[in-house]
Specification:
The protein folds into three domains: 12-240, Rossmann fold (3-Layer(aba) Sandwich), CATH 3.40.50; 255-299, no CATH class; 404-551, no CATH class. Helix content is 40%, strand content 16%. The protein has 20 helices and 17 strands. The two termini are 45 Å apart.
């Protein structure tokens, strides 16, 4: 019988107690102990298993669970005798930054005060410790009661670590989840510098480890904020990011793990669909699937759609795309057409300088999970869209930034092209070009082709949308090849007609475009119902001729 799916369960002990599906990542424990670093920073896209892995580390190392810990029976780490010597042997501080509000400085401070109050209450026994002095106990009481001044919370992690070490006589493990969340969410706000400074102080105090209060620390986040921005004063951090070759399979699912999951639930025949939609990430040397989307995919009877990309916003990414649209137009169009673009990723980001280089957007997109890395035949690093889920969502994001005034026409254009509704196609195209395309940019066929291809990105799930590729006996403008279902294939050929030309001339150009599709066999490799469109543009005004064929 298949185990229940752990939909959005990030508590390792709850997951194991409920006998939920668990993809074993406990070899992370042996790797951490073997490397023996002081502080680890792991950066991966959101919902790739960072919180669950930290919860797993807490369950393994925390002295609190020493008397009853059945959670690791049958897992990889249970076979590692050296690791088991460290099981439930250390006091652990586990703190997450995910739910801190940053609408204002005061919201941030209030939420921080509340979170530390809840954290300290877990260690109320320290108030009875013979190893702590009156001043230390007074600070603990103030934090527990929520009456400590916010400025004094900068040392809350450090003070708790010191007190636990004194009480237990054992160095402490500190686990910090999503450290960069308040930093990203406050980016661009008036109080950003204050929150950045607060986080810098808090982390630096807690992790300097000068007095050896730490056994080790583990921090997770989406991006590595450069040392001069957040980790100033720390020289003991070992960084592991999407380019690192160690720990490359402990976040996300491998191909074998996905096949095992699908087989357990009787969906092994859906493996190719899962690969097309949710695979494509490259972490170190490993090919990785999006774990959140795979579990949602299985939960929804293997219905392919976007599950991960719409779960939360990314203000930094959206702001960067807004600023980069004009300068990176050609690159974004290549990505939209499924191609790679050459770009070397910055492994760390200095937020104060973010956006000073147009290419910054690609580093943020890779770290955030919207692009993946690769290498072209010349050995040059590249970035590209990893899968169909991201193609759809990235297309929507770009369209929102290009075309805020006519979002309904984007969907209408795709629907009408599939239905063969010429009036609706013409209306949507005109409204889209009239509202968001400058006349100066419409100087050749390629300009129209690139713009329309971008508008069709939201169809990437149902279609393989490509532009300006060789097929048959020539190079077509736009092809939409059906991926599944009863949808028709679509081929579009475009012509640019002088703005002062007659209707007859525009119709003649559109007819030539349609004939070119047939003469040059642009439908090569397609089967079934296929819609052919020849479209001529007089500036922003389209004229369309149409033919439906069966291949």
């Amino acid at each position: 019988m298949a185990r229940p799916l752990p939909r959005d369960i990030q508590d390792f002990r709850k997951l194991r107690e409920g006998a939920y599906l668990y993809v074993d990542k406990t070899d992370m424990i042996s790797q951490i102990l073997m490397d023996n670093a002081e502080v680890y920073l792991y950066t991966r896209p959101r919902r790739f298993g960072k919180s669950l892995n930290l919860s797993m580390l807490d369950a393994f190392f925390n002295i609190e669970y020493k008397d009853d810990n059945p959670y690791f029976e049958g897992l990889k780490v249970s076979k590692d005798g050296e690791c088991l010597k460290h099981m439930n042997a250390y006091p652990v501080v586990f703190f997450d930054f995910k739910t801190l509000g940053v609408g204002s400085k005061y919201t941030f401070e209030s939420d921080l005060k509340d979170k530390f109050s809840r954290l300290y209450r877990r260690y109320g026994y320290l108030l009875e410790s013979d190893n702590l002095d009156a001043q230390e106990k007074r600070y603990i009481s103030e934090v527990m009661g929520g009456i400590v001044e916010p400025i004094r919370l900068r040392k809350a992690l450090l003070n708790l670590t010191e007190c636990l070490h004194k009480h237990h006589g054992i160095p402490v493990i500190v686990l910090l989840d999503e450290y960069d969340n308040p930093i990203h969410n406050s980016y661009g706000k008036p109080h950003f510098d204050e929150i950045l400074s607060y986080m810098r102080d808090m982390l630096s105090f807690a992790l300097k480890n000068k007095e050896s209060h730490l056994k080790f620390g583990v921090i997770t986040g989406v991006m590595q904020i450069a040392k001069e921005s957040i980790f100033s004063g720390l020289n003991n951090i070992t960084v592991n990011n999407i380019l690192s070759r160690d720990f490359d399979e402990v976040f996300g699912f491998t191909s074998d793990e996905v096949m095992s999951i699908l087989s357990e639930y009787g969906y092994q025949d859906s493996f190719d669909v899962a690969r097309e939609w949710y695979d494509g990430y490259r972490f170190g040397n490993s090919e990785i699937y999006n774990p959140w989307s795979v579990l949602e995919f299985v939960s929804n009877r293997c219905t392919p759609k976007s599950y991960w990309a719409g779960t939360s916003g990314n203000d930094i990414l959206e702001d960067l795309i807004t600023g980069a649209i004009s300068g990176l137009q050609d690159d974004l169009d290549i990505l939209a057409e499924g191609g790679p673009i050459p770009h070397e990723i910055q492994e760390s980001i200095t937020l104060q300088d973010l956006g000073s280089e147009e290419g910054d957007v690609y580093s943020v997109m890779v770290m955030s999970g919207y692009l993946t890395t690769g290498v072209n035949k010349y050995g040059t690093p590249t970035v590209s869209i990893p899968n169909q889920e991201i193609a759809r969502e990235l297309g929507k994001m770009i369209l929102r930034r290009r075309n805020m005034s006519a979002p309904t026409h984007v969907g209408a254009l795709g629907d009408s092209l599939i239905k063969g509704d010429l009036d609706a196609i013409g209306h949507s195209l005109y409204e889209l070009f009239a509202s968001s395309a400058g006349t100066a940019m419409l100087n050749d066929e390629h300009s129209y082709q690139a713009y329309i291809t971008g508008l069709l990105m939201h169809l990437f799930g149902r279609y393989e949308v490509k532009a300006d590729f060789e097929e048959g006996n020539g190079r077509y403008n736009i092809r939409m090849k059906r991926r599944y279902g009863a949808f028709p294939n679509v081929v579009i050929e475009l012509k640019r007609t002088p703005i002062d030309a007659s209707d007859a001339k525009a119709e003649s150009d559109a007819g030539q475009a349609l004939q070119q599709i047939k003469d040059r066999d642009y439908t090569h490799g397609m089967t079934g119902r296929t819609l052919l469109y020849g479209i001529s543009f007089r500036n922003k005004m389209p004229l369309i001729v149409f033919e439906e064929i069966t291949l």
